[in-house]
């Protein structure tokens, strides 16, 4: 059993996501950093998708009631097990009744915690992920609270291992996000578009405090709509990474909790950069760089190779 002692700002159950139901308004609600989740599963002996804890904020602490292997990936953190430091992106052994505490995040924003046992959780519409808006999936359809308990099954006796340092992504600002043109790019003046997309102009946006799993609001110079253009559109489908522009002119990067939107879609963050969106925290700054569709495809092919080859790069410790 795993007992939540301190849930941090927000902690919940995630997996690879809930797909195939966007037509009825059900979003993926997947882990925001899927590379980190893949690494976590490999460190804890899971070859396939399995429920994991996605945590935002500190202090976070859990009591572990089994002898088990644990790991923390995603954001780099300062963490201890019964007062002894443990390293992120490296699995470690926890004895029954150990206390795992995360005191600070040193790079990135969201981090992931997993175990060499499987969290007992009901699948809803093919996924274990928590949908906070619809209040289903995960742990009772909500974020964790102090005192919540998770049962584990099939606890495996596996060795310790580590992800090599050169396979751990950079998660600190400045966050350069590659983007492709959105369907409503023409709604904005040429000057606005150039300032947003031209990396040499160094147009910088700060991440707003009004940021959550639904979207990342940015602050800076607003984009200017052409006079003849409406400030909104008829609601249409949106994908994770869509950059929407509301009437204020300030970008919102959509994440994994919406399927439609009514704001102009000026751009889309390329899929290869989606994991980085998990680590944009308030007051970080963001730069956009326009790339072609062909470049976006190449970037994703490279990222996919790094994900699929990760198992062969893990260092076995004991």
Structural commentary:
The protein has helices spanning 34-43, 190-197, 274-277, 293-308, 310-313, and strands spanning 2-7, 10-14, 52-56, 60-64, 68-81, 84-86, 92-94, 98-115, 118-119, 149-150, 152-153, 161-162, 175-181, 205-211, 215-219, 236-237, 242-245, 252-254, 260-261, 264-269, 285-290, 315-316. The chain has 318 residues and is mostly beta strands. The protein has 2 domains: 2-167, no CATH class; 175-308, Beta Barrel (Cyclophilin). Strands 1, 2, 3, 4, 5, 6, 7, 8 and 10 form a 9-stranded antiparallel beta sheet that branches. β5 (68-81) and β6 (84-86) form a beta hairpin. The protein is globular. It starts with a strand and ends with a strand.
The succession of helices and strands, N to C, reads EEHEEEEEEEEEEEHEEEEEEEHEHHE
Major beta sheet summary: 9 strands, antiparallel
Q: So what's the overall shape?
A: globular
Q: Give the uncertain stretches in residue-range form.
A: none
The oligomerization state is single chain
Structural class: mainly beta
The count of helical stretches stands at 5
Number of strands: 22
Number of domains: 2
Radius of gyration: 20 Å
